[in-house]
Amino acid sequence: MALELDEDYGLGTRAVRAGQQRTGEGEQSEPIFTTSSFVFPSAAAAAARFSGAEPGNIYSRFTNPTVQTFERRLAALEGAERCVGTASGMAAILAVCMATLKHGDHVVCAHGVFGNTAVLFTQQLARFGVECSFVPLTDLAAWRGALRPNTRMLFVETPANPLGAIADIAGLAEIAHGAGCLLVVDNTVCTACLQQPLKHGADMVVVSATKYIDGQGRCVGGAVLGSEALVGKDVLGVMRTAGMSMSPFNAWVFLKGLETLHVRMRAHSTSALELAQWLREQSAIKAVYYAGFPDHPQRALYECQQEGGGGLVAFELRGGREDAWRFIDAVRLISITANLGDAKTTITHPATTTHGRLTPQARIDAGISDGLVRIAVGLEDARDLCKDLQRGFAAL
Ligand SMILES: Cc1ncc(COP(=O)(O)O)c(C=O)c1O
Question: Would you call 268 exposed, middle or buried from its count of C-beta atoms within 10 A (0-12, 13-18, 19+)?
Fold first, then answer.
């Protein structure tokens, strides 16, 4: 039997223990089941599994014990009935869309979601007859105003990457449910350790496990979380047929990542706040954005939804793209890469990387200016990161 730990157990205990199902070998660490298929004791047993009359594994595109252990553990952290692991964060979003949308449906999405998510809605899903409107993340009246009779989904990332604006999850859930829609929240930036959107009324959570859940920049993966009916039936149905499955090896890496996630998210948040406050003192900077600033304009919302600011800090340089690139090229310790959630701090220029495929107008709407630089603060000493960023300021 898998170890079920309800919310009477602390988050740390669930992160380390939940979902484990020891084999007869008595292993301490969870095994990796590197097998594509599973063997049945008889033809009749095979038929019973395939027909669904008997539960159990058939083929690793459908289910795999290592992936299931990861799914149970993440579900225990998010407070979800069910979790389905996917090949990437984008596969998680696509699986949700394929499971819930059809030709003629309409989605309302926040400006400034991850660039590929916006492209998925505006280009790929548009080819299948799904329309999408974009609204400012924090403007509930705009969300309400964008609803149409055929709206089926509200999609949001909070806090926004990279500007740290915070969406009112409960407010959006009320709007969605009043209109018979689903609210889907991308929880990649906070993870379940800092925020649990389902508790505030979201219907489904998607996450890129590639980021903080891995925590060391090794594997690509994702997950969808929600009710048994939506996720265990509809999303799993799409995932196992379309084949956006998580590999057992990646699931094992993510499972190990979950064991330290609560400690790491606290450390990312502490360093990010220290760095963001230091950046505010630098004269070359026009503005610093961090969801965890004590004077953040949405602090009340933060306190009701989040237990930490996370690791993303962004700042705007006065000199536009030229200054931003010069600044980035001058750092020596921090890695120039668009990934986030790594123990190693990363730096990127959103306008030409993560949000580079958006139209210029969509970038303006999302607040992604040419002078914006994003740092995903890792686990190095904040003092050393400041020293490295000094090289950037010296180069301007
Ligand atoms: C907020 C957010 N959601 C989803 C994704 C997509 O995840 P993946 O790269 O694992 O497909 C990313 C990737 O950067 C992201 O930042």
Answer: buried
The verdict on 54 and 89 lying in the same domain is: yes
Contacts for 42 with CB less than 8 Å, ≥ 6 apart: none
Q: E strands, the chain, where?
A: 82-86, 106-110, 131-135, 151-157, 182-186, 204-208, 222-226, 285-289, 312-317, 335-336, 346-348, 372-376
Q: Which two tokens stand for residue 11?
A: 């988050």
Q: Is 350 in the pocket of ligand 1 (CB under 6 A)?
A: no
Tens-place pLDDT, residues 161-189: 999 999 999 999 999 999 999 999 999 99
C-beta of 187 in contact with ligand 1 (< 6 A)? no
The domain that contains 304 carries what CATH number? 3.90.1150.10
Share of the chain above pLDDT 90, in %: 93
- pLDDT tens, residue by residue, 235-269: 999 999 999 999 999 999 999 999 999 999 999 99
Give the domain extent around 278: 261-395
Cα–Cα nearest to 213, from 115, 339, 116: 339
pTM: 0.96
Q: What is the total count of domains within the chain?
A: 2
Do 269 and 241 reside in the same domain of the chain? no
- CB of residue 210 inside a 6 A radius of ligand 1: yes
